[in-house]
Amino acid sequence: MNRMLIIDDDIEACETIESLITRQSHSCDMAHSLRNGLDYIKHKEYEVVFLDVHLPDGNGLDILPEIMAIPNPPEVIILTGKGDPDGAELAIKGGVWDYILKPSSVREITLTLNRALKYRKEKNLRTQEQQLDLSSVVGISPGIKTSLQLTAKAAKADSNILITGETGTGKELFARTIHQNSRRSEQNFVVIDCASLTESLVESTLFGHRKGSFTGAQNDQPGLVKLADGGTLFLDEVGEMPLSLQKVFLRVLQERHFRPVGAAHEETSNFRLIAATNRDLDMMVEEGKFRSDLLFRINTMHIRLPPLRKRAEDIKPLILWRMQRLHDEYGMAPKKLADDFLTTLLSYGWPGNVRELFNILERAMVNADEENTLYNVHLSRDLRIQVAKAQIKEMTGSEVTADDQFPTNDGVRKIGQEIFEDIFDRPLPPLKEFKGMTEKIYLSELIRQCNGEISAILQKSELSRSHFYSLLKKYGLSL
Predict the structure, then answer these.
(1) N or C: more exposed end of the chain, with fewer CB within 10 A?
(2) How many CA atoms, within 13 angstroms, populate the side-chain half-sphere of residue 397?
């Protein structure tokens, strides 16, 4: 007997689907809000989840990463009464099984359900996934877990892979992880930095050359493509590859044949291709800056790496992992983390992502010298100033300039006066306690004004979802 969950505020639709499910001898639970639905998913295992998009407390698509991050996630069928092409795209990218509109016939829903169950049964009967060596990959967030699930699939296959993400998110790290866990792990992992390829030496660099083929060619030299024979060829920043080279490289991908400079015959290379970029290749294709046929070739599997600002819960594990590596490699003793140190890092925007986090951490450890604990003061002044300005803007809705050290927004000042009109009639509490009081009041009023609507709360506050929920937990608040 399989267990299903319906998350939908349409009572009639819930009862119809429940009747369909129970007639097939399956069990069924129902939830009429995202919060209740997530509570069910966290405490029970389900084979299939029917998920509505428009719910009283938010958009059903927002919880897809959390659903997909759990071990052996259920198959998700989006069932909604409002057609939304962009929503369908997000749902499919999020890994749902199907996306159908209400009202749909019982026959259509039954067919979709049975196909999902058949697929799931076959998937569970397959050989248990190999244990990946993830010693260099750190993360507990839903986004990173989704990326790791795709990484596990990629390691077992031999298809071309495209890894996308902002600078510093770890694209090469994931590429190496795939290679190290693949059947090609004993062979070379060869990196080609497409941004550094020069027109004059590109063919010699990629395909090698024969002795005497040009001035300075004193010996036969294999190219990077040949060095990757039997292993993995990693095209880093593939979006920077010149158009003239894209055509040449497309043939190499299709045929796995190439001719070294000065050679009379072609050679072969049986490499597995992984490409990475921080650019929007689809947009580049539209602008004529990237070949569509090359994009089709490299994008057999697609792994998207989330930016660090979207995975705040990974910051502390990343810090602890990096401190241990610094100890092992350079003898730098790990240190304790003060609350204000972590609070500042959690409030920062991380434009440089994980790479920037590691650089900032190492600098802070050097500043701390022999001290056993990292405090906010050990961080650079520039970073602390950026965080302070962002927090003031977040709390007041106005900027702080060099000429105006305090917000001049009269509306916000009036609200502040009303909230704190009695606090100045008694001794002031410690600054940390005072800041906590203001933050809690702000969150409470935010929830009230937005009627607990999570999408409106995140839009108005400009907080990330993970940061908002961490604040709720910190202050014991609920939606």
Answers:
(1) N
(2) 12
**What does the alpha-carbon distance between residue 238 and residue 276 come to, in Å, rounded to a whole number?**
6
Q: How far is CA 323 from CA 327, 345, 360, in A?
A: 6, 15, 12
**Cα–Cα distance measured from residue 249 to residue 159, given in angstroms and rounded to the nearest whole number:** 17
Residues 20 and 103 in one domain: yes
Nearest to 98 by CA among 66, 138, 51: 51
User: How many domains, in total, are found in the chain?
Assistant: 3
Gap between the Cα atoms of 344 and 236, Å rounded: 32
3-state secondary structure of 276: strand
The model's pLDDT over 375-433, given as tens digits with 9 standing for 90+, comes to 988 998 888 888 887 777 766 655 544 444 334 344 444 444 444 444 444 566 677 77
Same domain as 160, residue 302? yes
State whether 118 and 185 are in the same domain. Answer: no
Residues in the chain: 479
Please name the residues in contact with 105: beta carbons below 8 A apart, sequence gap of 6 or more.
Answer: none
441 touches 423 (CB < 8 A)? no
CATH code of the domain covering residue 469 = 1.10.10
- Looking at 99, 125, 151, the residue that finishes a domain is 125
Domain edge (last residue) among 306, 326, 354: 306
Pairing mode of beta strands 301-304, 161-164: parallel
- The CATH number of the domain holding residue 251 is 3.40.50.300
Neighbours of 251 (CB within 10 A): 11
* 87/234 same-domain check: no
CA distance 146 to 165: 14
Please give the residue range of the domain that contains residue 187: 142-306
Structure-token pair, residue 98: 């199907």
Burial of residue 52 (CB within 10 Å: 0-12, 13-18, 19+) is buried
Q: For the purposes of burial, counting CB atoms within 10 Å of the CB of 431, is it exposed (0-12), middle (13-18) or buried (19 or more)?
A: exposed
Cβ-in-10-Å burial (0-12, 13-18, 19+) of 230 comes to middle
